[in-house]
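Sample log: Serine/threonine protein kinase.
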Amino acid sequence: MKLLEPGTEVDGFTVLECIHSGGMAHIYRVEYAVGAPNPGFPLAMKIPRMTAGDGAENIVSFEVELQILPTLTGPHVPRFVAAGDLDRIPYLVMEYLTGPTLQHWIDAPQRPDVATIARLGAAMGHAAHSLHQQNVCHLDLKPGNVLFTRDDHAMLLDFGLSCHAHYPDLLAEELRRAVGSPAWIAPEQVVGVRGDPRSDIFAIGVMLYELATGELPFGAPTTQGGLRQRLWMSPAPPRQHRPDLPEWLQEIILRCLEPEAAKRHPSAAHLAFDLANPGQVQITQRGQRTRGPRLRTHFKRWIKAAGMHYQPSPLPTRQIEEVPIVMVAVPHEDVQDATLYSLRQAVARSLGIRPGARLACVTVISPSASSSTDAERSETALHRQHATRLRQWAEGLDLSGHSVSYHVLEAGDVAQALVRYAEGNQVSMMILGAATHGLQTQRFIATVPMRVARDAPCTVILVKQALPFAQLAREYSE
């Protein structure tokens, strides 16, 4: 189909201009024709290319996006407006988003600083997690498909290669080969496994690698053999290209790029959490090395990959529900041993049935507690003191197989601080005491758990205080 001229009307929409002409589709800025209702936001129309030289995947990917886009909600995807069918003229009308794509930062003459890389990466992690919570895997994340309305808020575009767990996978049915953009495609996609949310984590890892170094970790292969190399190959460590990168960032990037999906971050929420809390990232040999693995390591991986049987992916929601971020609010004053004991028991039970879950131990202190003649030094010392107490409290937990981090927050409103932390870190479950939360007066003690339970964006478990140990001992002796 030839390009539409400005002023052309299509089903009640007036074409204003062509804003993108790609290999698979043309995108136009449009508006409703005179007399039609105003949706309150600008509009874009996407029309697939359908000339004789265009491949069948153009039509199939249009049908995929037509199937998936209307089902998506939330702040990380454009709003769907209307669609036209293939019998007359196929098109999708959606919200027109403005802002730079990730390609803007990649093409910049200077590499972004570490803080910017982490902020952009965390935003992509949050956006991908929102998609996975709707049982959709994007499977074509790349710099041109990630747009930023702010550098801490990402929007995902182009769902033509995506997979929805509740709908037929048209691409797998129609195209008997790997589908995806070669530089960003995950190893399991290369062998035909679609629908694993950790494939999107791999793609984010590729983008973070290029953002940090200016290089693509696996190049841009054009053959099936070149694509298959990522089933066993590890790229050069980012610090080999850019020695000033911190070890924690390399740890995160290389974990995203693990050939086996099970060795990557278990969910995009975990990835975003690490990028937002670099001081809590556990550094392994992955983050420390300045050279890639030896030939012997790659040979072993090649042998393993040759005999590996890839299984179909379970529901994305089921995968991410099995590895939640669990938050426990640990009081730091006016608290009895029985309360701390009861919280520890509740956390142990929650982690025991959720292998791979992450635990975030949080305490909230008053801002006035850090005031002194040398405020900055006093604040640092106070935070370290409370972080140490959190670690001591967690010593009784079996944390094998779990990531754990410790956070000291300063706030005058404890309930608000806990809710905001849960919102900002994709917390799935919060555990806190039902009776006391370190506040001074009984009048406020009762309101904190109720306010948290009312406002928190996640499941809240209120733990009743166990009997004091002394009373337990007396009852046992009787």
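Observation: The two ends are 88 Å apart (CA to CA).
Observation: The first strand starts at residue 9 and ends at 10.
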